Amino acid sequence: MGILYYGTPAAEFTFDDRVLAHLQVVFSAKLRRHESFFFSWTDGVDLGSGRRALWVSDSIPLYFRFNGSRAPLLNRQWLDELAASAASTQGLVLGEEPVMAEVTA
């Protein structure tokens, strides 16, 4: 499990390394263009099944900490879905990863 640190003082949000890697790509694309957005997700049962939302802005400190040493293979379809969500009026809503299409040589 990795950690997304956000703000000063930093709030910590735990995500699976695979999820965090996809979020890093989408966040960086938006923030490079100085585009702020809401990011929301649902907590697991262990955290009460609530919903959280962050206002993500390039003026707020952001740090990704991965538990594993290897970067996961990224799912292009999921990145496209997350990017489209981030560009919507409701902002980036974290959903389930779609099944990756088979890669053929």
Automatic annotation (TrEMBL):
Protein name: ATP-dependent DNA ligase
Alphabetical UniProt keywords: Ligase
Highest taxon, organism lineage: Bacteria
GO function term, MF aspect, one: ligase activity
Domain DUF7882: residue ranges: 1-96
Source organism (scientific name): Orlajensenia flava
